[in-house]
Structures are given as C-alpha cells and as structure tokens.
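Intended use. Records such as the Class II aldolase/adducin N-terminal domain-containing protein entry shown here are meant for training and evaluating sequence-to-structure methods. They are not intended to support clinical decisions.
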Amino acid sequence: MAPSALLSPHEQPHDNPKIISKSVHAQPVPKKSPLELISQGTALPGIPSFPTFAAHRQWMLSKMALAFRVFARKGFTEGMSGHISVRDPENPHTFWTNPLSKHFALLKASDMVLVNYDGEVVGGNRSLPANAAGFQIHSAVHKARPDVTAACHTHSKYGKAWSGFNRRLEMLNQDATYFFNDAQAVYGDFNGVVFSPEEGERLAAALGPNGKGLILRNHGLLTVGSTVDEACYLYTLMERCCEVQLLTEAAAANGLAKVYVPDEAARYTFDNASDPEALYWEAQPDMEYEAEMGDGKHAS
C-alpha cells in the first residue's frame, strides 16, 4: 500500500518519524526457541517422547550404539579406554554403559550393560564386564547431577593434548561459545586411573551444577547432556575445539595475535544455540549417517 493511502499528501513518512516508529514497534517481537531460530520455516520437532519405559529404553540404547559408532568413525578409540553412560528412564539409580573390550564401531543396543550405583550388574549384557574406571567416573556424575541423562568420555587425541595445559578452552570462535562461562570446567588434578569413588566424586564436583564439558588434566574430555545425542555432539564439538585451540596456539607462538569473541556475543550465541533440543538435533546428521552405513545393525 502506498504511503499516501495512510497519510495525507502533505504528511509523508519522512516528515513524521513518530508515526513510522509507532507502526513498526506496535507489537513486541515474540521470543523464539533455539530450534525456531535455526529453522527457516517450520521448526524442527522437539526431542521424542515415548508411551512406555520399554520403548524409551530401546530408543536410548539404539542412540547410544550410534554415538559409539560416531566416535569410532572420528577416531576416538584407544584400546579398552572410553565409555558412554545413559541413565535408565525407569530406574534412574541405574545406568547403561558399554562392555569392556568391545570396539565402538561394533556396538549394538543389546551389547550394553546395566549397572547400579553399587557397581552391580543388574541387567543387559552379562557376557562381558563394564569398565571399572568408567563406573567410578560415570556413577559419580549421575549421582551429582540428576539432570544428566548421559555422559561421554574417551581418550581422543586433541582432548588429551589440550588437557596437558590444564586450561579452559578460549572463546576463539562461534563453536567454542557452546562452552561459554560455567558450561565448561577443568579438573586440575591427575592421580592415575580412576579406581576410587573419591576420585570420581572430585571429578564430578569439578564439573559443577551447570557444566556441559570437563577437561581432565593429563587425561582427556568428558561431556554430559539430557540425551545421549546431546552429550555425543558436545563431545565431538569439544574435541574439535581443542584441535582449533592447539592450532591457534601454534600460530600465536609465531607472533599472530588472538582475537576473542566478545562476552556479549558469546552469551548471545550460547543462549540461542546451546540448549538440549538444539544440541539433540546437532547430533542427528552423524547419527543418521551411522545408521545408514551400518544397515540398522546398531538397533539389534
């Protein structure tokens, strides 16, 4: 509609900025969720829900198997090291984890072991034991953080390298802002393989109430999430951020100055991109690829 249809011939828009301001700002802009912000058009749906514990459990275990296959393809295997835990939806004082000495790329839903907080195997696969060090770490994290459904830890290359500096990741780029402020922490001790509950408890305390990622000095990385998809994606992201940090440190050592993301921009990105639903969807491309490449064997 032409301006003259709203205003008199002698009152054009540039003559009366108050009218323009009033028409533009008449309605407040509704706050959008991170999924709505990233979706141009109909937003991606939220995290699936299930009518029964059994259906929910099978879905979680299938996704857990896919997470391991993602880790395998990205080169995060290291002998018997590395574990993922997923809290059982029906019995939250128990969690599922991977059997010892089974390659990540071969893991299926039926391979997973169910343990309780006392370390007893109470369900699932009984043909192989769980990882004892993994139990101490994951049980402590699940006890300390009721909001955590899943936790991931491996001895991936760049996480191990960066952990030797005993430092947080810096806000060097957009991806690093997913670990802004207290979303990341450093566990500044190393006392060998985690075989004591006290060491697991200290590690969980270092993660804090809001931590999504933890750098374990001289050890590697740990990430958590409300779904195994979220924890898996955050792990792959944190590992890549460690790689970028190391590359940046090498360039800076040759005299190039670092330029950091401003705190305001980092907070804005964190608030609008790093929530459970958005992080769940961030994992889906890699998981869908693994499901296709494995002909669905992960779900058996």
